[in-house]
Amino acid sequence: MAVSVATLGFPRIGPRRELKAALERYWAGTSSRAELLAAAAELRAKAWARQKALGADIIPSNDFSLYDQVLDTSAMVGAIPSLYGWIGGPVDLDTYFAMARGAQGEAHAACGAGCMHKATNVPAAEMTKWFDTNYHYLVPEFAPGQAFALSSTKAIDEYLEAKAQGIETRPVLIGPVTYLKLGKSHAEDLHRQALLRALLPVYAEVLGKLAAAGAAWVQIDEPCLVLDLTAEEHRLLAEAYAYFARAVPGLKLMLTTYFGGLGDNLDAALALPVAGLHIDLVRAPEQLEPVLAKAPRDRVLSLGVIDGRNVWRADLDAILDRLEPVARAGRSIVLAPSCSLLHSPIDLAQETALDAEVRSWLAFAVQKIEELAILARALNEGRGAVAEALAAAAAAARSRRTSPRIHDPAVGARLAQVTEAMARRNAGFAERRRLQAEALRLPAFPTTTIGSFPQTEAVRKARAAHGKGALTDAQYEEFLREETARTVRWQERIGLDVLVHGEFERNDMVQYFGEQLAGFVFTKHGWVQSYGSRCVRPPILFGDVSRPQPMTVAWWRYAQSLTDRPMKGMLTGPVTILNWSFVRDDIPRALACRQLALAIRDEVVDLEQAGARIVQIDEAALREGLPLRRGEWEAYLRWAVECFRLAASGVADRTQIHTHMCYSEFNDIIQAIGAMDADVISIETARSKMELLGAFAEYRYPAEIGPGVYDIHSPRVPAVEEMVELLRAARRRLAPEQLWVNPDCGLKTRKWPETEAALVNMVAAAQAARAEA
Length: 773
Ligand code: GLN
Ligand code: ZN
What we know:
Layout: E1 4-5, H1 18-28, H2 33-54, E2 59-61, H3 69-77, H4 93-101, E3 103-104, E4 121-122, E5 127-129, E6 136-138, E7 141-142, H5 154-164, E8 169-174, H6 176-182, E9 184-185, H7 192-213, E10 217-221, H8 231-247, E11 252-256, H9 266-270, E12 276-280, H10 288-294, E13 300-306, H11 316-328, E14 333-337, H12 356-359, H13 365-381, H14 387-402, H15 409-416, H16 429-440, H17 457-468, H18 473-494, H19 511-514, E15 518-521, E16 528-531, E17 534-536, E18 540-546, H20 553-561, E19 568-572, H21 574-579, E20 582-583, H22 589-610, E21 614-618, H23 633-648, E22 656-661, H24 670-675, E23 680-683, H25 693-699, E24 704-707, H26 720-733, H27 752-772
Parallel strand pairs: 1-14, 2-8, 7-9, 8-10, 10-11, 11-12, 12-13, 13-14, 18-20, 19-21, 21-22, 22-23, 23-24
Antiparallel strand pairs: 3-4, 5-6, 15-18, 16-17
Bound molecules: glutamine and zinc ion.
Glutamine binds next to loops.
């Protein structure tokens, strides 16, 4: 039986982020609905044709989205919260984008003034991360007694659209159990079985229409199968797929799982009456044998052998060594990426400026499909048929194993000398606190900010001009010094206690460090969708990491020279740099993180040597690195915390180490947060009204905490009394001498006027708290 190649989804943003441009033009009102839809259709057509030309046999449709595939699913089943004023019928573009981005002000254009069709001032639906990726989806929201009805025919339309272009596709749907699991409800007990029973007829209707339109297969994504599931969830899966088998008996379903192994869900997954199963063999290679042993002979197995989540070229011979026996055994198999290619940059061929050697180790979405085509040919016709391609892949793998660009013996030697003591401060917190209080002489409720100040148009323009060579190094430097000086003096003037330099010289909190560390490269077009039109270009950590020279000391020194108040040194922590980069797959993540930790440690020590009394090490992304399975949390947290401590513990006890985390879920990781042993942690709390401090109180968190007293995500200026009230709430949970006063996060996305007003009020709130104490 011939082995075929499938892709489970292709990046939709376009090789030059065409979708971003089209969306932003439409949102700005400078292009029409028809223009937006035409741009989208063109991107789809090109993606289909391209995948076909690259050798994919099974090409997805409905993997495209104007914003988000989970939002598309909500539109498909008509799960539109009432606040969007939707009155049934096909979900229109205004409603769709109102859910995606919120809507303000404008009346429904078609009806003119006085239109009551749309709620005109509505917030966007909540957004959160898609499993352990950096892709964000819009959280479905279910009302009590939620009903569902087919409200978008997008899946069918796009199938037919491809067909009209001569391309037979396999439509993609998010499975009903995953969809429900991702959703939330304000009703006290969200009754999932009732919701599922209401949902299944709509899914069956879509599947039926797809079958009627000619689809032989549908890819139905149930990545929830790699999570810890309850017995009830297993029952929901069984009910759903039994329903589909009855309702659309002729249609073949490729039950698609990714981002991990099926583990203890394997039997439940294999028991479902579907024609095919896709498994992720990159994250969970060990599941191949049990799946082969247990899967019914007629189940088509889709083997995710090429990494859809990372950028490395695969070792094709090694994959073939594993696949050949499977193919020989007469199993019907499909080769695929581990997951949708949505999470890969699109095309390495665009990276003409990238170092040639590093480039030879990489594969983006386009190259990954080529790899799959080579593998399939090798299985179908023998390795000889693709000897040249296999030799090239082997040569790349060999050079990656041995290149001195990657392997730096000095880094290995240094790691070998790391002792346990290096990840420990000398004294315990109580003693450190005494020494630091003496060194710093801060008032009660000390005030500070998280680091960045507004990245204004002027700052961005100057950076761009410098990048293009229109500003010389000296001119740009002068500009940054002026911005920094103005910001330092202003902080001093309004009475902040611990100052920051403002981070004007930084493009991004990870990239800035990556660009100065050995072991990283950066792409020009390696964009990956984060949400909607937003894309990120993660740094590529390809080799052993070291810090050739100080990265932030000069800016710190300049800023401190302008004031007598303590100037915080400001760094991004090793775990966050790791979690926001594409990371090498030839060594364990923990080891790559330890290398980063040593590099950051060097910087912390240099800052102290230069005179810094406080150094902040941001770990904004520590929590999001948590594995999908609870059973793996402990191991992750152990090395993540150890890496932070390794970075932080090179200094004397009188040097105060701050950390910052911008999220508001600590209950389940509070012990790890405690184990980080920072002297001060600032966290996001304004929107939760200090509630999350309960976790710190219960745990008897000993050190100091800066619970954010205002939300920096909105331009709204908080009143003094509001922040005083939040500080009172904080004092009910923690001792007053534990508390710092700061915003929730950095201020880079804000404008100056609201920043000034908010911080003046914040200082007044701290003064009021001192007076009350
Ligand atoms: N120091 C960074 C800033 O202020 C922290 C940003 C973050 O935590 N996301 O911008
Ligand atoms: Zn933050």
